[in-house]
Task: inverse folding
């Protein structure tokens, strides 16, 4: 059960790019909520729940996967990607809901997804150093920092483009 939750119900066990698959649930939920007209408050609440849930699962269950695989950051653990991707979208709803067209929402969603994946993969300073934290903290912390970088760039892009 621990591995099932840490892998986001098996997404982390897909053979190609498990972190990318793990980032998809929050991305899809964000896009659907925007397109269905959910309020900025509701979207941010759901993203916060996903982020906190991903954090809790990663901290609690990643150590068991680490012990089982012998790897310090097992590819199958994608609860950290769920948390990071949700955190990337957490505040952006307040800048977009009500003022963005459906096309703009699609661009924002794809950009947020791409930025998070870029920072998570490239790991600019100090993201790589955070991987050295013990147990599930190291698995999680690098993704949370990548999400902060992604969110800052995303907010900057949206403010320049939509709000102008």
Result:
């Amino acid at each position: 059960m621990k591995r099932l939750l840490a892998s986001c119900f098996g997404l982390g066990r897909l053979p190609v790019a498990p972190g990318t698959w793990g980032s998809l649930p929050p991305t899809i939920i964000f896009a659907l909520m925007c397109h269905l007209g959910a309020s900025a408050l509701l979207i941010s609440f759901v993203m916060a729940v996903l982020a906190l849930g991903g954090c809790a699962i990663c901290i609690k269950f990643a150590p068991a996967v680490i012990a089982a695989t012998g790897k310090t950051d097992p590819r199958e653990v994608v609860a950290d990607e769920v948390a990071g991707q949700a955190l990337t979208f957490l505040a952006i709803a307040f800048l977009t809901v009500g003022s963005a067209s459906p096309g703009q929402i699609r661009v924002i969603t794809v950009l947020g997804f791409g930025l998070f994946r870029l920072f998570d993969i490239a790991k600019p300073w100090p993201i790589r150093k955070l991987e050295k934290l013990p147990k599930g903290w190291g698995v999680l912390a690098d993704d949370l920092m990548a999400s902060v970088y992604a969110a800052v760039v995303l907010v900057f892009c949206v403010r320049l483009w939509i709000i102008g």
Remarks:
- Residues 2-163 form one domain.
- The chain has a mean pLDDT of 89.
